[in-house]
Amino acid sequence: MRKVALSTECHRGDNACVFTVTLKSSGRHFDVAAGETVLEAAQRAGIALPYSCRAGVCGSCKATLLAGRCVYPRNPPTALDAHERAHHAVLLCQAVPASDLLLEAREVTSVEDIARRQLRVRVADKWTLAPDVTGLRLLPDEGVPRLRWLPGQYLDVLLEEGRRRPFSIANGPQADGAIELHVRHVAGGGFTSWVADRLQVGDTLRIEGPLGTLVAREDSERPMVFMAGGTGFAPVKAIVEHFIELGTRREMDVYWGARNAADLYLREEVEGWAARLPNLRFHPVLSEPDQAQCPGLREGLVHEAVLADHPDLSGHDVYMSGPPAMVDAARHRFTDAGLPDDRLYYDSFDYAPDVLAQIMAGRAGLHP
Ligand SMILES: Cc1cc2nc3c(=O)[nH]c(=O)nc-3n(C[C@H](O)[C@H](O)[C@H](O)COP(=O)(O)OP(=O)(O)OC[C@H]3O[C@@H](n4cnc5c(N)ncnc54)[C@H](O)[C@@H]3O)c2cc1C
Ligand code: FES
């Protein structure tokens, strides 16, 4: 690793203050422009660091600050608890350097080869997966090259005034470029209400992708636990299908938590995987079960079911995706059960960064 001389001075004399961030494990380094977050600057430099919500709430971009100082001028780092702050944890999606930085951060080099781009897609199919979940099949618009992505990644749907809405891609790359989304209708949600009520086959959308670092880690022989909550099944489906295609012999336990049986909208498909593959087991878990519809199904919270079956997670790789409350509870409980931080891969289905910023500003009595 190159020797790091940290500076607290801007490297430029004008207003465009630049600091250098060095990643301890690889020795790679990149410059951060004035006001930029570490994550934004790393992405501009083609270096993939983990992230999910991009709003400071999910904790997936957590890293350790070994030297230097950063500030949080956008959103406060709500995902860090007092213990993590005391141990110099920082959230890369919000941290803006106030000096050169030396960081211990996980790099996800597998996603670095695919540049993110914007494209127009057409709605080729729209169907009802569950009472409040819509399936969408999107195809690149005429003459537009297809999107490339890794199974598990997500895309942003681009709306007016720079607003974006993130959705996981529920399939792996296809020859015709088809992208499958599972969109849950959020009460009071502008975009998801429009998808449920007004979006029609033949309409076009602008998207940007691929995004995110929830992707298959193939450099491991460990057994895998997959845990999805609701439409958090979308990226889990893409990653499990990828491992099945690879013919993996690793043990796979797929947990899917939902309120009731209707919300397990592709249950037969997962039961089919379990019936075919001796190394894959399916564990549906319902939090509000209707015993008439689903006798015998497991009841409770899905992460509790994982822990009941795997009280020691120290030998596993865990992939999870779904509602923020589930992800937040699970990430603490799973690490308490021995799972190392760097073997927990997740996306937290938070609202879009602009909405979270408004909500947080509202809570603080501020205007965004
Ligand atoms: C990485 C990632 C992947 C995701 N993948 C999926 C997926 O595959 N499938 C899926 O269904 N979802 C997914 N989500 C969640 C999805 O992005 C959100 O449900 C979506 O952005 C909601 O958009 P909306 O325009 O309908 O709602 P919004 O209009 O953004 O509103 C969301 C909620 O916030 C409330 N709200 C809005 N503004 C304010 C305010 N100022 N103060 C207080 N409350 C407010 C609204 O009433 C509503 O309840 C993902 C999220 C992330 C981060
Ligand atoms: S807290 Fe940074 S990506 Fe979620």
Secondary structure layout plus pairing:
Layout: E1 19-23, E2 29-32, H1 38-44, E3 62-67, E4 70-71, H2 82-86, E5 89-91, E6 96-97, E7 101-104, E8 117-130, E9 133-140, E10 154-158, E11 164-168, E12 179-184, H3 190-197, E13 204-211, E14 224-229, H4 233-246, E15 252-258, H5 267-276, E16 280-286, E17 298-299, H6 302-309, E18 317-322, H7 324-336, E19 344-348, H8 353-363
Parallel strand pairs: 1-7, 14-15, 14-18, 15-16, 16-17, 18-19
Antiparallel strand pairs: 1-2, 3-5, 3-7, 4-6, 8-9, 8-13, 9-12, 10-11, 10-13
The chain binds flavin-adenine dinucleotide and FE2/S2 (inorganic) cluster.
Features:
single chain; 368 residues; alpha/beta; Ubiquitin-like (UB roll); 3 domains; 6-stranded parallel beta sheet; 29% strand; binds flavin-adenine dinucleotide; binds FE2/S2 (inorganic) cluster; FAD-bd_FR_type; OxRdtase_FAD/NAD-bd; CDP-4-dehydro-6-deoxyglucose reductase; oxidoreductase activity
Commentary on this structure:
One of its GO terms (molecular function) is oxidoreductase activity. Its cofactor is [2Fe-2S] cluster. This is CDP-4-dehydro-6-deoxyglucose reductase. With 368 residues, this protein is of the alpha/beta class. It has three domains: 89 residues, Ubiquitin-like (UB roll) (Roll); 95 residues, Beta Barrel (Elongation Factor Tu (Ef-tu), domain 3); 125 residues, Nucleotide-binding domain of ferredoxin-NADP reductase (FNR) module (Rossmann fold, 3-Layer(aba) Sandwich). The strands form four sheets. Strands 11-10-13-8-9-12 form a six-stranded antiparallel β-sheet. It has a six-stranded parallel β-sheet with strand order 17-16-15-14-18-19, sandwiched between helices. Helix 6 runs parallel beside helix 7. The radius of gyration is 21 Å and the shape is globular. It binds flavin-adenine dinucleotide and FE2/S2 (inorganic) cluster. FE2/S2 (inorganic) cluster (FES) binds next to loops.
